[in-house]
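Bug report (template v2)

What were you trying to do?
Predict the complex of my protein with nicotinamide-adenine-dinucleotide.

What happened?
Run completed; filing so the output is reviewed.

Input:
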Amino acid sequence: MTYNIAVIPGDGIGPEVTAEAVRVLNRAGEIFGHEFKYTELFAGGSAIDKFGEPLPQRTIDACRQSDSVLLGAVGGWQWDTLPGDKRPERALLGLRAELGLYANLRPARLHPALTDACPLRPDVAARGIDMIVVRELTGGIYFGERGRVQTDMGEAAWDTERYSYEEVRRIAVCAFKTAERRGRRVTNVDKANVLESSRLWREVVQETAAGFPGIALDHMYVDNASMQLIRDPGHFDVIVTTNMFGDILSDEASQITGSIGMLPSASLNGRSSPGGPEFGMYEPVHGSAPDLAGKDTANPIASVLSAAMMLRHSFALEEPAAAVEGAVTAVLDAGYRTSDIMSHNKIRVGTKKMGTLIIENLGMTKL
Ligand code: NAD
């Protein structure tokens, strides 16, 4: 089977980590008998430099025609002084909106070999961390009405949090289905003690739960959830939450697993893809890390694991996905580390070498 992948390497370390993910995908294709065809596209700062805009129409069109999208990261100091709607990060919001990617899945798992990279108390880390944040991605305050007005207290500004029944229902369904494949527990995170939008959100999540009787559901206010992530992360299996709460909590969850360089993500639109079950865009949780760009030191594992999520969620290729994840585990177990996860007595490697090691172990896992 041939799969068409739109590849947006982006800025900073984006091209370096994406190149390793593509090499790993190619090797997985060789081993398991699949072909991956790539269309390289521009978005973010590189698109501003080449075409004068962060998200050219050609990029949107080519993504729509592909079976899935693999993105590196966008942004960098070169473009920091541009006005808001001209900045590289607009490309991300634009792609999510144009492709209808309403469900963002961010797994946060503490790899057993990396417990010493976890900033939590050793007894808390030893209990294990393995959760996934299901974040609503195309609604809420990031997309709501906003404005500025002059008042007698000086200039005022506002942003609006707004969610409809259907927006909440479809992300809740995604969370319950995700829980069916994992620990069968969903924690809904909101601020229903204060916000009307959260009260509707909680009602709809509760109503949707009735269709998933085998899944345990609990509710938590976002301030409490941010504490429990530190105090008792083992409590969480699947967290479902709004765009802004998910943005913040998934970064917190990522940090307690050691390094942001380890964490993949998938953004799905609920529609089937020509190549498989669901169209999606796959990208590391981290940004473009301009401080590391071009130095061959960035950790490519988040990008490689994003490619594994693509194999699973967009192409239904469970065996190759598990093989890629297994190869990453094998490399970490063997003691290889990029600088961000380096610790005593381990072997420090660069971006390319880490990719090569994963590829070598991928072959060994299968053969
Ligand atoms: P960042 O994630 O790029 O970097 C945060 C820290 O993590 C830095 O110290 C960086 O060196 C480190 N880091 C990140 N990825 C790493 C990796 N793979 N290996 C090792 N270390 C890694 O976040 P930032 O510094 O806040 O943002 C830098 C730029 O990226 C900004 O322009 C920002 O807007 C953009 N950004 C883009 C995305 C995206 O494209 N999805 C997400 C977040 C930030």
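What did the reviewer find?
The pocket of nicotinamide-adenine-dinucleotide is lined by residues 13, 17, 73-76, 89, 92, 260-261, 283, 286-292, 298-299, 302, 340 (CB under 6 Å). The mean pLDDT is 94.
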